[in-house]
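re: ur question from earlier - yeah i can do the single chain one, its not a big deal. heres the input i used so u can compare w yours
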Amino acid sequence: MQLRAVLFDLGDVIMQEESEEKVDDVTQRAELHPGMGDLVRRLHGRGLPLGLVADTRDGTYRNVLNQHGLVGCFDVFAISDQLGVVKPDRRMFVHALDGLGVPEAAWGDVAMVGNNLARDVRGANALGLISILLVWNQRYPTSPDDAAEGAALPGQHGGRSGRTADGAARRRRGGRVHIPPTVPVAVTGDHSPAV
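and the output i got, formated as tokens:
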């Protein structure tokens, strides 16, 4: 099986929320988490379709991605301000999947990288996507409240064994891989997160 696409959240996944400079509740500029700009560029450079699935204002994602030269790396944008719903509403994810041309039968070959169990992981798991939790800070809980936030059996929700860069197996919680806060994640050909 081959990874067909990667979906990213914006705040506290790619962008450092604490660095945001806002005017009228729209972020004008912000810093990226270390390594995330390079990760997005590398995945795009390898021809992997990318989508942004974010609960944010229309101007925020454009301003931040343009600031760092990343807007052209994304093939589709599913933005709550434009769609009128927020994650984990399936319409956010389906908008991105449809925009990338991924048929429903292949949703299990798409990864969602997020920082929020209740929104990113729950929404991705409900559609059978591979979910990857990035934890850069303690803004959101990191333990699942229920099965929808992680407790699936291997094979469900794209359940695969996560591996670190040195090949050591990581503990899995359902269909997602928990990544320590200081490790930028790359998705390799075997779908294992790696530095």
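Confidence is low (pLDDT under 50) at residues 151-195. not sure if urs matches, ping me
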